[in-house]
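cron nightly-structures :: item 1 of 1
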Amino acid sequence: MTPQPNIVVADALDDAALARLRAAARVVEVDGRDMDDLREALTSADGLVVRTYTRVTEALLAHAPRLRVIGRAGVGVDNIDLAAARSRRIAVVHTPAAATDAVADLTVGLMIAVLRCTCRADALVRQGRFDEARELPIGVELAALTLGIVGMGRIGKAVARRCYHGFAMPVLYTDIIEPGPLPCPATRVSLEENLQRADVLTLHVPLTDQTRGMIAEEAFAHLALREQRRLQTGAVLINTARGPVVNTEALVRALKPGRLSGAGLDVTDPEPLPDGHPLLADPRVVITPHAGARTWAAHARMCAVVEDVLGVLRGEPPRFPVEEDEKLVECQTRD
């Protein structure tokens, strides 16, 4: 009888996924942020399952001589050293479409929360300051605004579909890859033009060397322009991609003189923001705790990665491998 493989689970999975793994393997659960425990567990591991916060580095893989597969329960793979895994012939699999709808829903929710001062109004009403809440800036309807998408992949398309068909927003988009069929009419423009024309700019790119800090001083200077914009109080920035895509210090500076109407951030850099950070004190900024994929349906789809992990360990070809050019392809995805 073939011995059961050893699988290390370094981030939380739902009970059904863990039960499926335990039916076919010996499972060790560790906190992936505790490097000592993780290194020790990997010395005898055949498979590793991670989510967002476990960092799989070349140094870590040096402690995993038996490792054959890494399963990323989610989409983005910026926490995995793909070159190091590839050099050791370790397969990397993920769930590319798992969080598309969940992240797209939150993206639209953040737009509305910023434009309608939802969080500020809620806080004031709870404090018994009802009349003061009624004096907050009057909101703007989405149908009156132009949407700009950076990264027209699965999630970008899902956001475009919601905003065009649901709110009648004109859609601009920027992508270095030809996105294929679109779910609605949309105009492809350069990043510079997108920054100058979009009333709501939403980011759906992976974190790569090319996208790190792509929204910085120069980008905010374009976002501050009013000539081609409907929203004369300044654009709204939405980031449900990765925190370091936006230069945090530049964002703080852009908000200070009122060049932006506000920002909705599901991700930040650093994450979480430290106590006392200026963004935490800015009422025009809505921040959620990297919760884009936190729906029951998305979790179930992400946890399906365990089937791919088990399949690879049985000698089957992976169903959803991270390809060699995945960081380029990822420009059209995100969890």
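cron nightly-structures :: done
DSSP finds 15 helices and twelve strands in the chain.
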